[in-house]
Amino acid sequence: MNDVVLWHFPVSHFNEKVRWALDWKRIPHRRRALGPDYLWRAWWATGRAQLPVLFLDGRAIGDSTAIIGALERLHPVPALYPADPQARRRALELEDWLDEHLGPPVRAAIVGTGFAEDPAAVIAALSLGMPPRAARFMRAFFPAFRAFYRARHGMRAGDVGEHTARVFAALDRLEDERAGRPYLVGDAFSVADLTAAALFAPLVLPPEMQYPPDLSSPALRPLRERALAHPMARWTAETYRRHRGASAER
To answer: Is the Cβ–Cβ distance between 216 and 118 less than 8 Å?
Structure first.
């Protein structure tokens, strides 16, 4: 792999999945944080108006799961997919389930609360690491931006309680799945652990997190306190401590 470039949102936990995979495999890469123009840039590159997008030797790959799969095929050591076929199947099932049942409600609970109670805080979080024009754009066109964001991510005003309930239902299931073990599948770190920890990290904010958003807004305090009291918060912090490592960004 001669040239590896990641287009990403620094604050996004789905983008964190890919950053972690690149760092875990020690793949030197360059990162480019896009602003609101990501829609047409990502669409041009992959046919999907979504980040992350990874350019791997000139080939654009979208979707965090597809990117990790490509990295695993091209750079299989250290592995994120278990060697045992049954364990591999279970790890991939969990990755898909987490992408649907944990990642979106975490985002919706945080952003939905911010939209309703502290717009300045949510704009600061969403524009973390982006060019300065991104925050200016969000502030100048906030009602339109909020409506667009809600529509894009299937969020309705007043549904924050529902999204929060989904977060904790997913965490309860993960805690049952883990059953006191250090890993979700087998006895080694896998894509299932990476995905679970990355998608919950915005509410835990482990010290190893490379782009921690400022979630100190009083509006978000009850959500964070409840999240930090859950057993999966301690597991997430420990998983980051043991396995996140240093950045491989060039």
So the answer is: no
Just give the CATH number of 4-74: 3.40.30.10
- Round to whole Å and give the CA distance between 38 and 60: 14
pLDDT for 118 equals: 93
Q: What tens digit of pLDDT does each residue of 10-61 get?
A: 999 999 999 999 999 999 999 999 988 888 899 999 999 899 999 998 899 9
With a cut of 50, list the residues of the chain below it in pLDDT.
none
Dihedral, CA of residue 238, residue 242, residue 246 and residue 247, to nearest 10: -70
pLDDT at site 111 = 94
3-state DSSP assignment of residue 248: coil
pLDDT at 101: 97
The domain segmentation of the chain, as residue ranges, is 4-74, 85-243
For residue 98, give every residue at least 6 positions away whose Cβ sits within 8 Å of its Cβ, in sequence order, or none: 170, 174, 192, 195, 196, 199
> What are the backbone angles phi and psi of residue 29, rounded to the nearest 5°?
-155, 160
> 132, 147 in Cβ contact below 8 A?
no
Helices (H), the chain: 13-24, 38-46, 64-74, 85-101, 103-117, 119-126, 132-140, 142-152, 160-178, 191-204, 221-228, 231-243
Query: Residue 170, CB half-sphere, CA atoms under 13 Å: how many?
Result: 26
Query: What tokens appear for 134 in the block?
Result: 């991104």
Q: Which fold has domain 85-243?
A: Glutathione S-transferase Yfyf (Class Pi); Chain A, domain 2 (1.20.1050)
